[in-house]
Design a protein that fits this description.
There is one protein chain. The chain has 10 helices and 12 strands. By secondary structure, the protein is of the alpha+beta class. It has one domain: Bira Bifunctional Protein, Domain 2 (BirA Bifunctional Protein, domain 2, 2-Layer Sandwich). The strands form 2 sheets. Strands 1, 5, 6, 7, 8, 9, 10, 11 and 12 form a 9-stranded mixed beta sheet that branches. A 3-stranded antiparallel beta sheet has the order 2-4-3, with no helix packed on it. A hairpin with a 2-residue loop joins strand 9 and strand 10. It starts with 8 loop residues before the first helix and ends in a 17-residue tail after the last helix.
Amino acid sequence: MDWRPTASLDVLRRRADLLRRLRHFFDARGFWEAETPCLSHDTVVDRHLDPIEVQASLIGCVASSRVQHRDAPLWLQTSPEFGMKRLLAAGAEAIYQVAKSFRADETGRLHNPEFTMVEWYRVGDDYVVGMELLAELAKELLEADEIERVTYSHAFQQRVGLDPLSASVSELKRRAIDARLSFPDSWLATDAEHDVETYRDDWLDLLLVELVQPHLGLERPTILHDYPASQSALARVRPRDEDGVSGPLVAERFELYVRGIELANGYHELLDAEVLAARNEANNAARLRDGKTPLPGDSRLLSAMREGLPACAGTALGFDRLAMVAFGLESVEQVMAFPIDRA
């Protein structure tokens, strides 16, 4: 009887209560709830995130001042980030959104192509305040007494035995081989220095996912912060402070983990449009190397940033995963009424 929901009605009621508590958390702190489009001519340019494309002509969408032909694609949003930042540039100061988001080729215990994302931004916050707000929310919704904070470098050194900011690609590769981890043959296809460096983040991600993440948030919710600058995404970068001495660049980026599962990803937001444009170009080059289609690098967000995006911090939280860990369940299907195979 595949017409029935995969989650029990009791779980769906508890999910609704969790969402009410989340909205109360932000309402009580002066945030207001925003709404931005699920369908847009713009999309986040990320090497690993694949948006779902919708041909504009199929829904009768006409060309706009920026999109000059009717066949230009629209994209179901992978998160509400672009629209919300345009609101910040227009004068909004503290906003949150509960949004349906979409990502292609994502199904499994922790994934569904359509999912619920909670995202928030507040003008004037830096990444320290951003982490504090995320910790407050985690304590409130997960009923946790304490939130642990650990740097990416410390966690990596503890579990991998290498400093991720200074280890050579050869050292990272050797550690992955010694741990008998699986990876594509293409990562070993060349010894040219430039090409080897191209795969640095792949090795870092592999070692983090396989050797570090499973140990995060086991005793208490854990915030991992100060990522390598090469993984800054839309975050600012700064030198790592090592006992008062400036070290390698790190990204002011943080993630929340519970039971080894990533629940949230936050940034001290990048403000420089030209830096973002360069990162978009680099991400599209990486997508081409991976055999993927490049995504549109120009966007109304870049236009808004050139006008002036105020200093802020923002965080995106996967609500389905939050409900799953809050209720002690093992799959997001157990907290969704109708995942993709029953939609």
